[in-house]
Amino acid sequence: MEIKIALAGNPNCGKTTLFNDLTGSTQYVGNWPGVTVEKKDGRLKNHKDVVIQDLPGIYSLSPYTLEEVVTRNYLVNEKPDAIINIIDGTNIERNLYLTTQILELNIPVVIALNMMDLVRKNGDGIDLKKLSIQLGCRIVPISALKGEGGEELAAEAIDAARNKRLAEPPHVFKGSVEHALAHIEESVEQRVNSDNLRWYAVKLFERDEKVISDLAFDDSLMRHIEMHIKDCEKEMDDDSESIITNQRYAYIQNVVEMSVVRKKARGALSVSDRIDKVVTNRILALPIFAAIMFLVYYISVTTLGTAVTDWTNDTLFGAWIQPAVQHGLEAVGASGWLISLIVSGIIGGLAAPVGFAPQMALVFLFLSILEDCGYMARVAFIMDRIFRRFGLSGKSFIPFLISSGCGVPAIMASRTIENEKDRRMTMITTTFIPCGAKLPVIAVIAGFIMGGAWWAAPMMYFAGIILVIISCIILKKTRMFAGKPAPFVMELPQYHIPSVRGVLIHVWERVWAFLKKAGTILFLCCVVMWFLGSFGIHNGTFGLVDSENCFLSDIGNAIAWIFVPLGFGTWQAVASSLSGFVAKEGIVSTMGVLSGLGDVGSYTSSMHAAFAAFFPSSIAAVSFLFFNLFDSPCLAAISTMAKEMGSRKFFWFAILFQNVMSYCVALMVYQIGGLAAGAVAFGPATIVAFILMAGMIYLLFRPDRNKTVKMNLREGEAA
Amino acid sequence: MKTDIGIHMADIIILAVLAALMIIAARIVAGFFREKKK
């Protein structure tokens, strides 16, 4: 029979690392809370009948956010055969709070005491025997990161599940609280699942709204329960929720005092604290973050990245693959049009974005190191200070951070935000941060038009952050998104040297996802674009035509007028932008298809010349870049947004907002920037750009009516 | 008009291989979106 073992624990305590260790999977592991937002299943290594389930991290069984609801519902309603409760050994007090709740669920529990290597390194000691007796269940010391103790833990969990070895419920509550809980248990025992009797009693005592509405007891029973709660509250002189919390912590303190020996006096500064004094310093924090990001992009885009990308473009594709395939096809007697499809259409189209994979891999490598060592969690903390001023919580920065890799998991990560308005606002703005797929677009524009300016990539990253802030200020002042940002409480992980395996897995997963996309959706996109770019109807006859008469030029020219004020009204640029709505890599691959038509030799220089021909001026290329970075994301991200938004109205608002915003930004960049640089003549579009800029400044600085109304209300109440 | 579309024996084989690859790619893409909907 199949055994289901769930991994439950606080956020960022190492659940996914343990899940990967036990199942051999390579699920995404991040060094900040909220990385896992959905339940994930995997089979235990060498035990095909044992399913390990990775649950989103929770601090307690009183959920506030969507992903916390996933965990609670699963543990309470679906009941796994056993729970492995992972505890961060370096922060045992806080982690045991959830443990005391899990032990009330009447499910076999085994505790995995993680990060024992760090506990030992800190010189602390935990008496496992005493702790095990106190908590009434088995405890296995592990180090998920180093892969230590996993096998023993799995064996214990299987044994607990097979023998239904329930934990001995610890005596957490005392005096009148225990008395009230016993009365509640007696009152509801016939009406709830007897396995969860204690848990329901505690939740009813806490007046948990979700549980009360699910149970839907009649009024007389609820009045009876309420009487017991009120009696207890009167005696303890506190509200019921606080009483439960206080008694849990009092119990935990007692357990910790008996079984944990600390070497360092509390309050002494650790190495992490000392580093944080500098990197989270009020004045230095932002310049340090900016300098680090510039350095990451400088190394990735110029030095090593450029060398490998040039080799991939010029030698691998330009000198080896394309000529070899062309000669091969000619040798077997393939027709000219088919050779054009394969060599220029498919290989030429795929070569353009794939050539940038090395640069992308380097950016991912550095970002992974920064994530894994714990620095990026500090950046979320730094950003909270800034975001809060603009009405957004630092919790939103985590989706923004993930968005630098891919928009799809970033949109999913917004589930960690409790406030629905903030969550929707984060989803709308998160794809403004350039994802990995947009890096080739930045590199192409920077490389071919702006003379290889390395600073273009970090500048676009910061432009994305600025646009997020501008959008949030504007949206927060509307009734749709008004409200105070949710409080942001995040535990900062200790700094540690990143694991080579973990970092390489991150990089490989992202690069592999990119290559898979190239082999599937981009491959199809290239074929379609080659067909539309090579065929057409000329003089009433369908067939291969010159590029000026192809279907793509007809489509591009038909809507090019929309983009003329943005400076890139050529049909090639418009067609490239259109393919970006399918996948952002499609922009560069379509440019590759359109520039490679009929010409295979000297790949880089031909691409350079062709790309330059798409844009009448450098400022037009920059405007093209801005439009394509900030318009609505690729199909995959759009479909995720539709699902996560939970409202058709908000979804369409998001699509409209993203495209209108990107259009306005590109218009201002081209018209006002071009005018300042002397590349654009003053005209009606320039006037519109100035009006838009004035409108945007007004929206940014206008008084927040929602705040004024609230203040008036307060004054009224006071009067 | 650049050229006429002539079809040789080799073209048919190459086109068949290409069509098969396109079907596989389309199925993978469709699978991804189905997974997202779940």
Characterization of this structure:
The complex is a heterodimer of chains A (about 725) and B (about 40). By secondary structure, chain A is an alpha/beta fold. Chain A has three domains: about 5-160, P-loop containing nucleotide triphosphate hydrolases (Rossmann fold), CATH 3.40.50.300; about 175-260, Helix Hairpins (Orthogonal Bundle), CATH 1.10.287; about 285-700, no CATH class. Chain A is about 65% helix and about 5% strand. In chain A, the strands form three sheets. Chain A has a six-stranded mixed sheet, sandwiched between helices. In chain A, helix 14 (about 305-330) runs antiparallel to helix 15 (about 335-355) and helix 30 (about 650-675) packs across helix 31. The termini of chain A are far apart. Chain B has one domain (about 1-40). The model of chain B has no long low-confidence stretch (mean pLDDT about 75). Chain B is about 75% helix and about 0% strand. With about 40 residues, chain B is mainly α. Chain B contains one helix and no strands. The chains are: A alpha/beta (about 725), B mainly alpha (about 40). At the A-B interface, helix 15, helix 23, strand 10 and helix 29 of A face helix 1 of B.
Defining traits:
heterodimer; A: 719 residues; alpha/beta; Rossmann fold; Helix Hairpins; 3 domains; six-stranded mixed sheet; two-stranded antiparallel ribbon; 10 strands; B: 38 residues; mainly alpha; rod-shaped
Radius of gyration of chain B: 16 Å
Number-wise, the strands of chain B total: 0
Percent of residues in helices of chain B: over 70%
Strand content of chain A: 5-15%
How many domains of chain A? The number is 3
Q: What structural category characterises the helix and strand content of chain B?
A: mainly alpha
Q: Greatest chain-chain interface?
A: A-B, 29 and 24 residues
Portion of residues in beta strands of chain B equals under 5%
How many strands in all of chain A?
Answer: 10
Total of DSSP H or I helical runs spanning 4+ residues of chain B: 1
Tell me the span between the first and last alpha carbons of chain B. Answer: 48 Å
**Poorly predicted residue ranges of chain A:** 597-603
